Amino acid sequence: MESLFSATIVLLLVSFSCFTSSALTSSNGNITIKWDLMTWTPDGYVAVVSAYNYQKQRSIPSPGWKMSWRWTRKEVIWSMVGARTTKQGDCSMFKGNIPHSCINKPTVVDLPPKTPYNQQIANCCKGGVLKPGLESAFQISVGQAGTTVKTVRMPVNLMFTAPKQQYICGPTKNVRPTTFITADKRRMTRALMTWNITCVFNKAT
Question: Given its phi and psi angles, is residue 192 left (phi above 0), alpha (psi -120 to 50 degrees) or beta?
Fold first, then answer.
């Protein structure tokens, strides 16, 4: 079950911190997706997923991007902030708290700009529109997953789609954890783990 306290801490961290990782200045001409694992929960983890548009002259227009992947175990999504899955799937095996999604290959979409503030994190809720040089982000609480750096498993077969644009995404890679600095610049922290996926524009459709 997800940890509400841990999720709240992550919301505060993402809302009031800025990135210092070199990921923000990586290669041009692609969409870079980054999973920052921020805290462990009793049965999984809370992560912030960010998509950076390094394409200099190509925007992701409305109705916006979609992101999907495949879990390698029986992971579920307990909750999301700043985005949602398009389908919940069959969660009938759960009693009490029902997951946000029980699908093995979920598809995630951004939330609209007028989303209530308590359902947002920094850089979310643009209706999927992603202009050059900017990022889009959401928070995800994953359950039935590993709870240490040795037992957790990366999602695979990630796909990034956009209106009239086709992208090819590479494999998920375990990279150096992202570092963060608080708004007052008095403290630096870092993610527990960081996974990176690069998606390259293939052709217009």
Answer: alpha
| E runs forming strands in the chain | 17-19, 30-41, 44-53, 66-70, 76-81, 83-85, 107-110, 135-143, 156-162, 165-169, 173-175, 179-182, 188-190, 193-204
Question: What are 57-110's pLDDT values in tens digits?
Answer: 999 999 999 999 999 999 999 999 999 999 999 999 999 999 999 999 999 999
Smallest CA-to-CA distance from 118 within 87, 96, 139 is with 139
The structure's pTM equals 0.87
The DSSP secondary-structure symbol of 112 reads P
pLDDT at 28: 52
The DSSP bridge partners found for residue 136 are 51
Ranges of the chain whose pLDDT falls below 70: 1-28
User: Taking a C-beta distance cutoff of 8 angstroms, is the pair 101, 155 a contact?
Assistant: no
Contacts of residue 147, Cβ cutoff 8 Å, sequence gap at least 6 = 40, 41, 42, 43, 44, 45
